[in-house]
Amino acid sequence: MIDYRSDNTGRAAPEILDALVRANEGTALGYGADEWTARLQERFSELFETQVRVFPVATGTAANALSLASLAPSWGLVFCNAAAHINTAEANAAGFFGGGLKLAPVAGEHGKVDAGEFARALAAFPPGQLHRGEPAAVNLTQATDLGAVYRFDEVRAVVDVARARGLKVHMDGARVANALARLQCSPADLTWRAGVDILSFGATKNGGALCDAIVVFSPELADRLAIQLRRAGQVWSKMRFASAQLMAYIENGLWLRLATRSNAAAARIAGGIAGIASLKLVAPVEANEIFLELPPGAMDALEADGFQFYRRSATLARFVCRFDVTDAEADALVAALKRHCALPAKAAE
Amino acid sequence: MIDYRSDNTGRAAPEILDALVRANEGTALGYGADEWTARLQERFSELFETQVRVFPVATGTAANALSLASLAPSWGLVFCNAAAHINTAEANAAGFFGGGLKLAPVAGEHGKVDAGEFARALAAFPPGQLHRGEPAAVNLTQATDLGAVYRFDEVRAVVDVARARGLKVHMDGARVANALARLQCSPADLTWRAGVDILSFGATKNGGALCDAIVVFSPELADRLAIQLRRAGQVWSKMRFASAQLMAYIENGLWLRLATRSNAAAARIAGGIAGIASLKLVAPVEANEIFLELPPGAMDALEADGFQFYRRSATLARFVCRFDVTDAEADALVAALKRHCALPAKAAE
Amino acid sequence: MIDYRSDNTGRAAPEILDALVRANEGTALGYGADEWTARLQERFSELFETQVRVFPVATGTAANALSLASLAPSWGLVFCNAAAHINTAEANAAGFFGGGLKLAPVAGEHGKVDAGEFARALAAFPPGQLHRGEPAAVNLTQATDLGAVYRFDEVRAVVDVARARGLKVHMDGARVANALARLQCSPADLTWRAGVDILSFGATKNGGALCDAIVVFSPELADRLAIQLRRAGQVWSKMRFASAQLMAYIENGLWLRLATRSNAAAARIAGGIAGIASLKLVAPVEANEIFLELPPGAMDALEADGFQFYRRSATLARFVCRFDVTDAEADALVAALKRHCALPAKAAE
Amino acid sequence: MIDYRSDNTGRAAPEILDALVRANEGTALGYGADEWTARLQERFSELFETQVRVFPVATGTAANALSLASLAPSWGLVFCNAAAHINTAEANAAGFFGGGLKLAPVAGEHGKVDAGEFARALAAFPPGQLHRGEPAAVNLTQATDLGAVYRFDEVRAVVDVARARGLKVHMDGARVANALARLQCSPADLTWRAGVDILSFGATKNGGALCDAIVVFSPELADRLAIQLRRAGQVWSKMRFASAQLMAYIENGLWLRLATRSNAAAARIAGGIAGIASLKLVAPVEANEIFLELPPGAMDALEADGFQFYRRSATLARFVCRFDVTDAEADALVAALKRHCALPAKAAE
User: Fold this and answer.
1) Do B100 and D102 touch (CB under 8 A)?
2) Which of B291, B320, C67, C123 sits in a 20 to 30 Å window from A129, CA-based?
3) pLDDT at residue B91 tops 60
4) B34-57 pLDDT tens trace
5) For position B343, what pLDDT does the model report?
6) Do residue A273 and residue A204 come from a single domain?
């Protein structure tokens, strides 16, 4: 079996678990008042080249929903692409933590919020109207839920529209390491320098184990988020075990090395199948995910060959590369795709 | 420094971290659809001698608040002792997850809900009235937040009152291992056989690291809890790392051995100071916590000697024993208490 | 000025205010325990030919949001047409009262939920999945927010899809009188006999003053709705003044006579402009609303002539007929529309 | 039957219904954009001698819960007397609208928050702690739920404690007219000049019909309250019918005349029974309510005589005077109380 189901089916990077185990010495104050969590603030502030507040949380859903709840009043609207994870896969956690805040889908290619469409959507909410709720924030998933990556100017264009109306900006960075590895820019450039107020900092999908984080760039958001996290049950009493994981994750660029590997595997597969007429990519492969429209029967055949992946519809398959996918595994998928999908295309000649 | 601040300042039991590290092999489906989590269901069902559903969660607050939200409608009332953790220390997480459910304090000694007081409180809510909300559940903290342990008949008396009015029963078992170690009864006897519907199963305070659990005895509660947990951001995508911890925690009675040790340390201290007139225990020492009323100046003196503990008021100190408190540390506290507190009592003679 | 802005800009029917004033005698128990409210239950049960529970509420938003919250868990999804009032104009009250429940737009012509599209949408939620929330209910706006009326078989088709998956059915009847007047069917046929579980019974837009109502056909919903209304601040202590209005509203068919008049005015206008090429109806005029795409400049010209109406976009105007629109007013609008809009069409010849 | 059950069992003042009926002319914009509601802002600003925002709402529960939700974050604590209506009789509407905010009872005589007790309660919440929630506001019920009236200096003392910690102040004025009539001070002095931020302005209990109001003194609260009201279903589309009632209520001092009458009736009864040893007032009779501890059998005897009232416990009866209680009715109650209660006392001599 070769597993392309998800990046959360994979192992954790050993460095991260080692750090967790090493944190198991002596006593330390609970609920984040420990030295590890204090150091975490420093490390992330260095990493992002500005003073940030970083809050470890158990899951990306918690990171997203609590971030959005900190940006929007309960009568607020959060704009996002229809394909965004917050809209399709978190059981409306944002609406729950936000006391009824509403997600407002905006069109855009490849899972991105299109700045022009966003501006048009906002125009339907004239300032002062009460009936439709209050536009409050916009969500960018970076990398997107279709495997594409916002370029810096694309982020900036969305931010400009948001700022012109006083909206805040959330980046769902479940795969932010993959985006950074792709863009080769600094974490600061991709986030607060581009206008992002708050970031869901994903680690789990990229070799993490039991925590992600929220990184707050706008200081006025942090104190109320802290108390929300407390009552959201997201503040571990033995927080050091989470903070230690996150420090190991970014130490010496581990996170970017891991993402570079998973990106490379996806690129290798995408490169291998380029030019096969019967295979249609739904979005450019810019991170570690491949969304492929496949000909009839191909999915059954791939599964019969031992490949694991998700069926998003009768014809759409998703393949996700983890950091530890080998070249051989990538090549095996390419070969299988050629075997099962290229032939019909030839037959059509 | 000798640390009696909390049982969450302590280390994790090495067996638990070992298990976590061992789970880091191969790929596994996310969100609890893995083999570890499947085995967890079996192990806990064996442990509790009935078919249970067990959901790992990040924190005790999440366990409590989501348990209560599964028992009560948003207009429900949950009765508890005024000293209960859910009432004093979780930033009203129960009210938040419960959509506005309300905690209704009930009097009782040593942090316990007194069955008679509970019955009197319920009598003020005649069936059919709408103005005061709907009595929905009762919460028992076992061991209590003052370090006492409900005896079996005390649990049963509260349950009987609850059942007579159709209320559900939640046990906050942040220190359930300590209670079991004290009572020497089976997990089943203490919980579902006594009428408990849902249990916050604590591990963190007793040598755990990053997870507690919810154990559901009433099957009709489980499915809706599962989806609530999903959108509460409490379902790890790499759940195996949580499930592995919990299995190690109960394997070969580890949890009870750990609790036996911390209970013994507390008992050793309580025994050592018995008979000192100037020291007043707020509740019997039946688990791993000691609540002491101290004479003026004693707390400063203890801190000067290097003891760490919490001041609950100007005169009330809390000392908590972890599983790894040594006899020497216990004896040192006894000696210091005698030194600083016994003398004034003598002087007063 | 001739006012076509909304049916809520209009007067109340005098019969309704007379009844309110007549209720001002003697004392009566509060919060709905009065004789008027008891009689209201009887009258509505007769009207709907089944035992119903009817709850007066202050507004249609309260009726809709609390109805939906009674049908769906807080993790539930409520399907509706994208144009539905609950989706576009109530500041996400449903999400608020529902604790984060989510509206899921479904395509369909003229503001209707299309049964086929609804079935396709539901197919994306396989039973047992947790990530996307739980399909819980469907909302039908009758008459629709574009002025069309669901035929009986159209309601039934949507209900069939809903029932096959265990979903409940809510009808937003802000203009249910207009729909009934159009369809000439019984209230029972349009609602519970067609499978509707709960109805927002509108009165305000059709000559009412200060209350609408919720009519509950599924008895198991009523008790918990009663307590939700209490804490939603929707239970008047002097309920008799609301109940008296609602009884007068339905007495001797007043409500249907009022709706027949406003429908007739709209039909007269629609008939008068039929065949004008430059005027495009967005939906058939089946109730008391007319949605017209107008040529450039026409809206300014109409306003200059003293007509009041709402601009839904740069080219889309909405004209709403109240029960007291006169034939002369209707004819004046027809004449003005011909004057300002027909000419360009002629010029184009 | 003579009805002392509640002030909400009574009639509306005819002036109020007359105004409602007179508002039924012409068309007017919906949702409060009408001339009546604009004039209401002016009249209330004159009445309170400062620029206020006034929002008509359907019920006192809505006024209280939405006021508190505007003062406190969802993790906030609102201090109040244990007997406060918000704590005992609104099905925890404050917790619901406040997204889980928590009421924190404070001791005090006669239903009042005692400033000293309040300060002591606050001291248990050191700034910066997260575990217990965030103290956010204090609620004063004026007149209290036991029929007493806060004197100006008592309000001020509570406000001083609140302000020293940055808390906001809400006054539940369900019977604010009775308090004003008692204190003979200006509405401004009793409210914003004393430090009140927001007022639930009761009308229903004092001759109103279908609306109360929220009066906002702190302008920064008003805009977000406006949108909360919209989605709370508390913004009538035909708002003029509510605004007209409220204007009539305060016009030419009607509200104070009505309250003076009900206060006088209560005072007449209290005076009539003064000195009867077997009757014990729970609080001084300073508004229109009388809470009496009665000897055994007295309540049955009173009911047999045709008096209606509420039994608050086996021995505590509540008698409420409406504005239209006659002297004869008051004297009849006095006579009956003497008949049934004074005799046993004599007999005991």
Assistant:
1) no
2) C67
3) yes
4) 999 999 999 999 999 999 999 999
5) 59
6) no
CB of C241 within 8 Å of any CB in chain D?
yes
Residues D59, D185 share a domain: yes
Whether D96 and C20 lie within 8 Å, measured CB to CB: no
Residues B277 and B139 reside in one and the same domain? no
* Least confident stretch, A313-317, B110-114, B210-214: A313-317
Judgement on whether residues A280 and A171 belong to the same structural domain of the protein: no
Domain span at residue C208 reads: 14-252
The pLDDT value recorded for residue B348 is 41
Dist CA D283 CA D275 (whole Å): 15
**Tokens 């539905």, located at residue:** C84
Q: Which residues of C touch B96 (CB under 8 A)?
A: none
For A201-221, the pLDDT digits (tens) are 999 999 999 999 999 999 999
* Whole-number Å distance between alpha carbons of A98 and A18: 36
**Residues of chain A found within 8 Å of residue D75, distances taken between Cβ atoms:** 224, 227-228, 230-231
**pTM summary value:** 0.96
Whether the pLDDT of residue A60 is over 80: the answer is: yes
Q: Do D90 and C230 touch (CB under 8 A)?
A: yes
CATH number at residue B320: 3.90.1150.10
Interface membership of A43 toward B (CB under 8 Å): no
User: What is the rounded CA–CA span in Å between residue B227 and residue D196?
Assistant: 43
Question: C92 to chain A: which residues are within 8 Å by CB?
Answer: 75, 77, 100-102, 133
Residues of chain C contacting B31 with CB distance shorter than 8 Å: 130-131
The CATH number of the domain where A118 resides is what? Answer: 3.40.640.10
Residues A234 and A306 in one domain: no
Whether B123 has its CB under 8 Å from any CB of chain D: the answer is no
Residue A44 one-letter amino acid: F
Query: What per-residue confidence (pLDDT) applies to D347?
Result: 43
Q: Do D50 and D178 belong together in one domain?
A: yes
pLDDT-derived band at C343, boundaries 50, 70, 90:
low
**Are the Cβ atoms of B98 and D96 closer than 8 angstroms?**
no
Residue A14 token pair = 């050993």
Mean pLDDT score, D11-35: 97
Mutation for testing the B interface, residue in A6, A7, A9 having most B CBs under 10 Å: A9
Q: Which residue matches tokens 């949950």?
A: B78
Chain A: touching chains (3 or more CB pairs < 8 Å): B, C, D
pLDDT at residue D42 is higher than 60: yes
Check residue C279 and give its pLDDT: 93
Given pLDDT bands bounded at 50, 70 and 90, which one contains residue B128?
confident
Instruction: Supply the ipTM of this predicted assembly.
Output: 0.95
CB D88 within 8 A of CB B121: no
pLDDT band at A343, cuts 50/70/90? low
Contacts A–C by Cβ distance under 8 A: 56
Nearest to C238 among D31, D210, D236 (CB): D210
Question: Which of D77, D100, D130 is opposite residue B100, by nearest beta carbon?
Answer: D100
Measured between CB atoms, does B236 come within 8 Å of chain A?
A: yes
User: Taking a contact as any Cβ pair under 8 Å apart, which residues of chain D between 129 and 168 contact chain A?
Assistant: 130-131, 133-134
Asked if A202 and A175 count as a contact pair (C-beta separation under 8 A), the reply is: yes
Judgement on whether residues A69 and A167 belong to the same structural domain of the protein: yes
Total tally of structural domains belonging to chain A = 2
Specify burial of residue C272 (Cβ count, 10 A radius: 0-12, 13-18, 19+).
middle
pLDDT at position D343 is 59
Whether residues C148 and C30 fall in one domain: yes
Cα-Cα-Cα-Cα dihedral of D118, D123, D128, D130, to 10°? Answer: -70
Residue with tokens 């009726």: C63
Q: Could you tell me which of D249, D256, D137 has the C-alpha nearest to residue D187?
A: D256
C209 vs D65, D204, D238: nearest CB: D238
Of C31, C134, C227, the CB nearest to B227: C134
Query: Which phi and psi angles does B206 have, rounded to 5°?
Result: -120, 45
**The pLDDT of residue C24:** 98
CA-based torsion, D92, D93, D95, D96: positive or negative: positive
Domain-terminating residue out of D238, D253, D268: D253
